[in-house]
Amino acid sequence: MRGFRRVGACEGYERAVLDPNIIMDCPAAAAGIAWAQFACVLGNEQMASRPRNVVLVLVVAAASIHVSAIGALAGERIREFAIPSPRSGPFEVTAGPDGNLWFTEEFNPGKIGRVTTMGKFVEYPVPTRDSAPEGIAIGPDRNVWFTELFGNKIGMVTTEGVFTEYKVPTAYSYPTGITAGPDGNLWFTEWYANKIGKATTDGAFTEYVIPTTNSAPAGITAGPDGDLWFTEESASKIGRVTPAGRFIEYPIPTRDSYPFGITVGPDGALWFTEGADKIGRITTEGIFTEWPIPTREGNPLGITTGSDGNAWFTEEIGNTVARITVNGAFTQYRVPTVGSGPRGIAAGPDGNLWFAETDGNKIGAIRPSTTLTSGSRR
After folding, report:
1. Per residue in 119-149, pLDDT tens?
2. Which residues have C-beta within 8 Å of that of residue 148, sequence separation ≥ 6?
3. Is beta strand 133-138 parallel, antiparallel or unpaired with respect to 186-190?
4. Considering only CA atoms, which of 92, 199, 196 is closest in space to residue 135?
5. How far is CA 131 from its chain centroid?
6. How does the average pLDDT of the chain come out, rounded?
7. Strand 300-305's sheet: what is its strand order?
8. CA 351 to CA 365: how far, in whole Å?
9. Which residues contact 118 (CB under 8 A, 6 or more apart)?
């Protein structure tokens, strides 16, 4: 059994284990989530970074009705927009070719959402119901591409809302992260199958087995060197694969670091989040630097590069959006909605950072600034 994660929504349980063939006794089952493929078992060790999405649906309703006192600075800097569909579970977000933000909604019953920079929404139901759309990226064809975790598909939707879906060849692969590659194809991670997948815009697949077994690949991005870089969540490694399918893997200095999100940073290196409460950086030569985040058990997840020349990331449990300079100085901003569970984050066409609030059922935007003192918490 694989994929140990922290499960904040499973009260009395500390370990969630995904298995495509079982649904075990867990509080989520009582909530009527019949499609959720997961198990909750007792555990007493420190768990990994990524709370499994199907478990966290339990706290969505509760989290969305508790709003914190908004400080003047946070109120001026962060805007939040409520998604029309209740308990939709927004997960990842990306800037679209049409000047809007596009995002995945994992729950009820699974949609692709679009929001303008003024907060106007359109939602498109994915044809495969309860497929749990997760990763999202803009393809070389200027369409929106996404992964379907439970549907085991790679999906595409035009900016007019027309869908096409392609079945991943490996059953129960759990496609997770996705990015456009330098070769004109879509590249994605297969979290459960331990593979990196490649799909043409016509839906032809090639799959490559990762050398490290049970590595749980999660985030993926196109690197500045023409290769694809990805996180190995269970193996605590950063992986690299050429367009021809040749792998190199780099063990992260911190043991049990549970890396998740990854992006090209403002300095041309690869920056990534660690469930061990660190932000990591690796050069294309394989040299690491790591910085502990100020928040204890903040659980950093998504990461991107902002228009201000810094890296920005979300803290799912810390309920903050934070930035880190290339020198490792932090500034953190509390999300106004308590327990919002911020996940994916992307730079928007308006210069703001846009992020998904999975438990708050909102899309947030934060205005970057180059004048704040780093190392502070707002």
Report:
1. 999 999 999 999 999 999 999 999 999 999 9
2. 110, 126, 128, 131, 132, 133, 134, 154, 155, 165, 175
3. unpaired
4. 92
5. 16
6. 83
7. 300-305, 311-315, 320-324, 330-334
8. 10
9. none
Domain 67-366 bears CATH identifier 2.130.10.10:
yes
Domain ranges of the chain: 2-60, 67-366
Nearest residue to 278 (alpha-carbon basis) of 257, 261, 251, 260 = 257
Q: With contact defined as beta carbons under 8 Å apart, do 152 and 174 qualify? A: yes
Tokens, residue 186:
């879509």
Q: Which residue's structure tokens are 């059922």?
A: 361
* CA atoms of 83 and 110, how far apart (whole Å): 13
Global pTM?
0.82
What's the sign of the alpha-carbon dihedral 195, 161, 180, 234? negative
Question: CA-CA-CA-CA torsion for 122, 83, 40, 6, nearest 10 degrees?
Answer: 110
Is residue 24 within 8 A of residue 39, CB to CB? The reply is yes
| Assigned token pair, 224 | 């500045």
Structure tokens at 146: 């996404």
The pairing of beta strand 237-241 with beta strand 342-347: unpaired
- Cα–Cα dist 89/85, whole Å: 9
How much is the pLDDT for 74? 54
Q: Would you state the structure tokens that stand for residue 166, as one six-digit string?
A: 């392609």
Digit-coded pLDDT (tens) for 318-336: 999 999 999 999 999 999 9
Handedness of CA 337, 273, 199, 353 (dihedral sign): positive
Neighbours of 71 (CB within 10 A): 14
Give 257-277 pLDDT, tens digit per residue: 999 999 999 999 999 999 999
Q: Which amino acid is at 57?
A: V
* 163 pLDDT more than 50: yes
Contact between 201 and 141 (Cβ < 8 Å): yes
Segments in the chain forming alpha helices (H): 27-30, 53-56, 60-64, 72-77
Phi (first) and psi of residue 179, to 5 degrees: -155, 160
Single-letter amino acid code for the residue at 43: G
Give helix then strand counts, H and E, for the chain: 4, 31
Total number of residues shown for the chain = 378
